[in-house]
Amino acid sequence: MTSPFSGRPAGGAQSLPTPPSGWPIGSYATYEEAQRAVDYLADESFPVQEVTIVGVDLMLVERVTGRLTWGRVLATGAASGAWFGLFVGILLSLFNSTGFQVGPILVALATGVIFFMIFNAFGYAATRGRRDFVSASQLVAGRYDVLCQPRNAEKGRDALAKLAMKAPGQET
């Protein structure tokens, strides 16, 4: 069993990255389709522990979401600083020997806003206009292959052929 976050075997055992093994039993244009195929195999009592979804022809896609301006830089810094300052202020108030007080919360909030705005401003100024946009990066594949260990590959291929003959939404 693997950890969902690290891909490593559960229980602390570490393993080195290895290429996937197995025979291709299906190829899909989207991850959602490949996931649907494996889900179908699971519903058909197929030993899915022998199946691997492999993204092929990987691409890093960076989608530009907007223009980066001084106003946006300072507003982002203020918002981040407010959350951090609020958190620190609440902690200070909770563990205050005189009881819960609003004063430390307000001081920490204001301090967080000011310092985070300053840090963001320095970071943005250091780029000297070389990156005046905001973006989100995503790793995507050109196709997704479903691989299976050889002992069950033919059975898996047959099951996925049945899935392909069904209309979408009829797999159950």
TrEMBL record:
Keywords: Membrane, Transmembrane, Transmembrane helix. Residues 25-99 form the General stress protein 17M-like domain. The chain crosses the membrane at residues 73-95, 101-122. InterPro entries: GSP17M-like_dom. It comes from the Bacteria. Pfam families: YflT. Residues 1-21 are annotated as: Disordered. The keyword Chloroplast does not apply. This is General stress protein 17M-like domain-containing protein. It comes from Allokutzneria albata (Kibdelosporangium albatum).
